[in-house]
Amino acid sequence: MNFEGDLKAIIDRFEFEGSFSACEEIKVGHVNRTYRLRFVLEDKSSRSYVLQRINTFAFKKPEQVMENVRLITEHLSRAMLARGRDPENHVLHLVPTRDGRAMILDGTECWRAYDYVSHAKTVNRVDTPGQFYEIGRAFGEFQNMLSDFPIERLYDTIPDFHDTVKRLEAFERSVSADVMRRADSVADEIAFVRARKGRMGRIVEMIADGSLPLRVTHNDTKINNVMLDINTGEALCVVDLDTVMAGSSLYDYGDAIRFGASTAQEDERDLDKVQLDIGLFRGFSDGFIGQTARDLTPLELESLPLGALVMTFEVGLRFLTDYLDGDRYFRIEYPDHNLVRARCQFKLLTDMEAHEEDMKCIVGEMIKKYRV
Ligand code: GN1
Ligand code: MG
To answer: How many domains is the chain built from?
Structure first.
């Protein structure tokens, strides 16, 4: 579908208020496509919405994604009200289609819309440990508010999403198939992955043997999935709920550290610039553990640093696999973008391995501070 050409037809099918005035793409996220729509109301004031095209290559059953989103947002709204807070602008709110559905689904074309979270921004780089503390607090509270959600009601929107062992098997299949003839050129990266194979399956093993519980988790806790108040910096709303499903608290903690506690962007080419910022690590840990210390088990809490290592490995592994497969999953901006991303994750992981004791120390400190 040609977005510009068919835009009006798509927009007309949603219950938007006012008359459409403008559309701009919001370029965050490697999977879905996101647009901000502006409308003018009768009193001439303006109002915005978010329109998203769900990537049905990644999300094979979008109707299940939308059912999860509906259940989760309803639950979060009730939890907010129970805490005496207003869900408006703090919980994503779906805009239905004119025929009362949660999305438009035409073949593999899938669209849905939300109210726009107002006076908010997202960041792709953390400015200060205080800002990352606030993001940690938001993701911790998110998990908190969903701790009484009946987990069996959620679909697995991407089956085995954080199953690092299955991701490793898929990687080996991609190395063998080598459809792009790229495997020889990434021999070092392949060896890096294989050398860590055993340890990186640890979370999957601990879930399977029952030592780590499954919880309702976000599963994609990049800092740009928290909307921050443009004036106060306060976390307003956790977004990107498509992968909310049963998972481990280690995933949410770990993925946030991977992305937010790095000294560089996720696709930094100059690997000398890529390190773990221990000050930022501390900031996030303080915010996240402050919210979750009472709910998580002692083993979960002390295993949080492992979450950071495994998530950094896993995302690097997924980028490398996609590079071998011919860049079918993640949107890229230049030919070796996925390889650059993978190398950056592996450099960050190497630095985390060197600082594992420091990470454990800080997490231990936070556990003492918050676990009563
Ligand atoms: C994708 O869509 P986005 O950019 O928020 C991916 C995450 C990865 C991330 C890496 C559904 O997230 O799992 O960690 O890219 N989301 C999906 O930047 O695969
Ligand atoms: Mg996202």
So the answer is: 2
Q: Is the pLDDT of residue 65 over 90?
A: yes
Q: Same domain, yes or no, for 187 and 227?
A: yes
Residues flanking ion ligand 2, Cβ below 5 Å:
29, 225, 240
| Residues within a 6 A CB radius of ligand 1 | 29-31, 58, 220, 222, 240, 243, 255, 266, 315
Ligand nearest to the backbone CA of 332? 1
Share of the chain above pLDDT 90, in %: 95
Cα(371) to centroid(ligand 1), Å: 32
User: How would residue 4 be classed by pLDDT, with cut points 50, 70 and 90?
Assistant: low
Cα distances (Å, whole numbers) of residue 82 to 75, 76, 78, 221, 239 = 11, 10, 6, 25, 20
Give the Cα-Cα-Cα angle 183, 184, 185 (nearest 5 degrees).
Answer: 90
Of 103-107, 209-213, 239-243, least confident by mean pLDDT is 103-107
pLDDT at 371: 87
Asked if residues 307 and 326 have their Cβ atoms less than 8 Å apart, the reply is no
Please give the residue range of the domain that contains residue 101: 3-118
Distance 222 CA to ligand 2 centre (A): 7
